[in-house]
Amino acid sequence: MVGFCNGILTAMITPFTEGGVNFEEFGKMIDYQIDGGTDALVVLGTTGEPATMTEEEKTEVIKFAVKYAAGRIKIIIGTGSNDTAKAVAASQKAEKLGADGVLVVTPYYNKCTQKGLLEYYKTVCSAVKIPVIAYNVPSRTAVNILPETAEKLAEIPNMAGIKEASGNMAQVCETMRRIRGKMDLYSGEDFLNLPMLAIGGAGLISVTSNIAPALVKKMYNLVKENKLDEANEVQDFLLPLEDACFLEVNPIPIKAAYNMLGFNAGIPRSPLTELEPHNKDILLREIKKAGLKGI
User: Most exposed among 53, 69, 120, 199, judged by the fewest C-beta atoms under 10 Å?
Assistant: First the structure.
């Protein structure tokens, strides 16, 4: 299944207050993304901190995102789990609440086999009709979707693509070779956005586009227009900012960055902590150098 969603897909944060989710601020962030040319929002992915949210909070976030977006931008919901039954239930809920698609991370901690991965995704895909994007991030899950497994996943009718965050370009290239024309490849590593697009990636599921949607979209457009020299100039400009957005584990820096732009993103939930002061200085410097403006 190809062509579900091309372009920039921002891995959205979830703004918190002491009492829960800050929906007013979340709406402002959605508008900021739409104004910046973002093509889709990935809500309740890793960057959205769903691991420390209640089921009630997650349900309300999905409802709000779908209603507030009102068809102006695609909404993709993170629904993966280390329990297949929970991933199925979350995906079905997202579909029922109006999501355009779901992002399903590999089962974490359990360390299933490649056969287990295939069965996991087959089960989730068969339970919903909306497009499903697999999420490969072995640094967090201890499970890696190998290229031959990705090729088998591409045979599932509503498997729309794979978000690749393994950081291994040799593996990514082999995966692309095996799935080309069958399902889409999405970059899940901001540092590798340009090379992943250059080998045929359909889009970027980006953290940095939370604060710099227009710049990330500009780089994407230049690659798709075969203007690689200009695209490289934009990527060179973006790289120090991207580095700063990962000075500590995601989403610690990007939440701090939103606050620096004038949004009220709050702070990460425990066990995550606020960005260290010396890293705040570096991040603020790069935001200023990039000429970013918030609200």
Answer: 199
Task: Give me 27's structure tokens.
Answer: 């709406």
Catalytic residue among 121, 135, 220, 258: 135
Range of the domain at 26: 7-224
What residue spans of the chain are helical by DSSP H?
Answer: 23-35, 55-69, 84-96, 114-127, 138-141, 147-153, 169-179, 193-198, 213-224, 228-244, 252-260, 277-289
- Find the catalytic residue in 93, 163, 218, 280: 163
Q: Is 258 a catalytic residue?
A: no
Interatomic CA distance for residues 266 and 278, integer angstroms? 19
Q: In the annotation, is 111 catalytic?
A: no
Mean pLDDT by 10 residues, the chain (295 residues): 90 94 96 96 95 96 97 96 95 97 94 95 97 94 94 96 94 96 95 94 95 95 95 95 95 96 94 96 94 76
What are the structure tokens assigned to 97, written together? 């609440």
- Tell me, yes or no, whether 137 lies in a domain: yes
> Whole-model pTM?
0.93
Whichever domain contains 121, its CATH number is 3.20.20.70
Contact in structure between 186 and 202 (CB atoms under 8 Å): yes
